[in-house]
Design a protein that fits this description.
This protein is α+β, with helices and mostly antiparallel strands and 237 residues long. The chain contains 4 helices and 11 strands, in the order αβββαββαββββββα. Strands 1-11-10-8-5-6 form a 6-stranded mixed sheet. A 3-stranded antiparallel sheet has the order 7-4-9, with no helix packed on it. The chain is globular, with a radius of gyration of 18 Å. 38% of the residues are buried.
Length: 237
């Protein structure tokens, strides 16, 4: 299923990823019954159930299930961010980075919120734009080298210890697993342009959309989302 996204971006498409943990499990579909998909949770990953060895291959396609990351296709490569942690406690806002502010070609993102330093410290889900399932940029996992971190939760206080690192993110599962002790537990807003003259904007949290309607859409999360959407539509004409 990642092939469709890869082809879209390769053709010069502009893509906004306004979620989190969205490209985690290998997913197969049945060409003869397109309403039917298959996911098999295999050897790693944050999951509520697992399958025993011998049951990790999909019956629809024969391909190995589990994480896209384990198949050499981490979502970071296409979307700039990948899943890293989750939690049920209060969410977090984001701090805008100095790097993003300093780049003139990114000024369209901040139109109308030029004086804001923190975004999304509010929301209808867990009280903030970053929460529940969160994603971060990671060059080691394939985030494009030209990607710019627009904002990150670590600049706005970060997440509490009610947030924990996913198991595939750690080799020694006893230390630095919580929000206040791990630099890996964060949401990053990322922007990059593709070789085909397209662009990607990712927000690193499933709760971003839960902040859009705050104060009847008069807020900096809605403003940024609108700015990027209108810019991408303008470029696509």
């Amino acid at each position: 299923m990642l092939d469709a996204y890869a082809a879209f971006l390769a053709s010069g498409g502009h893509f906004m990823y306004l979620g989190g943990n969205g490209y985690y499990w290998v997913t197969s579909h049945d060409p003869g019954r397109p309403h039917r998909i298959e996911v098999r949770r295999a050897e790693a990953g944050c999951r509520t159930f697992g399958l025993p060895p011998g049951n990790w291959h999909h019956s629809l396609s024969g391909e190995l299930g589990g994480l896209w990351r384990s198949r050499g296709r981490p979502p970071n490569k296409l979307f700039g961010v990948g899943s890293c942690a989750m939690g049920v406690g209060k969410g977090a806002g984001y701090g805008i980075t100095d790097e993003a502010r300093s780049k003139k070609h990114l000024s369209f993102i901040f139109r109308g919120i030029e004086s804001d330093t923190t975004i999304g410290d509010f929301g209808l889900v867990q009280g903030a734009a970053s929460g529940d399932e969160i994603d971060r940029m990671d060059y080691g996992l394939g985030t494009p080298k030209n990607a710019v971190m627009i904002a990150t939760t670590k600049l706005a206080g970060g997440h509490s210890d009610e947030y924990m690192l996913f198991n595939e993110e750690t080799l020694y599962p006893m230390v630095n697993l919580h929000g206040t002790t791990s630099d890996k537990i964060r949401s990053d807003v990322v922007y990059f342009e593709t070789p085909s003259k397209g662009a990607v904007f990712s927000v690193g949290s499933i709760n971003w959309v839960g902040a859009l309607a705050w104060k009847a859409f008069d807020n900096n999360i809605a403003r940024i989302s609108s700015n990027v959407l209108h810019e991408f539509v303008r470029r696509s004409k």
